[in-house]
Amino acid sequence: MVRAHLRSNYVDSDVCVLDISTRGLSASTASPPARGEFVSISIGANTLVGHVKWSGERRFGIAFRERVSVIAAISGEGDLVMPTRRVPNDRSDRRKPAADERSGGRKIELLVFAVAAGMATVLLADLVASSLGSLQTVEAALAPGSQGKGVH
User: Fold this and answer.
1) Measured between alpha carbons, how far apart are the two ends of the chain, in Å?
2) Tens digit of pLDDT for each residue in 95-132?
3) What's the whole-model pTM score?
4) Could you tell me which residues come within 8 angstroms of residue 39 by beta carbon, excluding any fewer than 6 positions away?
5) Each residue of 117-137: b (16+ CB within 10 Å) or e?
6) Which of 72, 86, 119, 149 fits 78 for a cystine, CB–CB 3.0-4.6 Å?
7) Residue 148 CB: number of other CB atoms within 10 A?
8) What CA–CA distance (Å, rounded) separates 35 from 8?
9) Is 83 left (phi over 0), alpha (psi -120 to 50) or beta?
10) By CB neighbour count within 10 A (0-12 exposed, 13-18 middle, 19+ buried), where does 19 fall?
């Protein structure tokens, strides 16, 4: 249990913190604040702002705006507010890795297409060459003066 001071629009009182976590706390006082109120609670030299999530006869619970250090709250030493990790605030920040992945996939797709086109070109050239060879054979057979003279 830690002693603290609570301030809100309607309540200014001493409270006893019963439970605290990085995201909120529960406390006890004679006149708890109403659910939905924004309050500030001073623990030692640190002041936290929170939103009252629930309120009962003599107890209430607050959700903090920032993450807090439980050890600093209990010991009264150090910075109570913990540093937060950076969260992308712009949709383009979240899309960059996906765009990079698509770019790599498109490169592979282009490479596969280029190889397939090259193979198709070689096969088509071979087909045309063999067709022309067959046509030359037929042309030679039909040409006057070929071995087919005398056959009517």
Assistant:
1) 121
2) 555 556 667 778 888 888 888 888 888 888 888 888 77
3) 0.52
4) 6, 7, 8, 11, 33, 49, 50, 51, 52, 62
5) eeeeeeeeeeeeeeeeeeeee
6) 72
7) 12
8) 12
9) beta
10) exposed
Print the SS3 string covering the chain. CEEEEEECCCCEEEEEEEEECCCEEEEECCCCCCCCCEEEEEECCEEEEEEEEEECCCEEEEEECCCECHHHHHHCCCCCECCCCCCCCCHHHHHHHHHHHHHHHHHHHHHHHHHHHHHHHHHHHHHHHHHHHHHHHHHHHHCCCCCCCCCC
Q: How many residues does the chain have?
A: 152
Could you tell me which residues come within 8 angstroms of residue 141 by beta carbon, excluding any fewer than 6 positions away? Answer: 148
- Give me the residue label for tokens 């592979």: 108
Q: Are 52 and 62 in contact (CB under 8 A)?
A: yes
* Distance from C-alpha of 117 to C-alpha of 110, rounded to nearest angstrom: 10
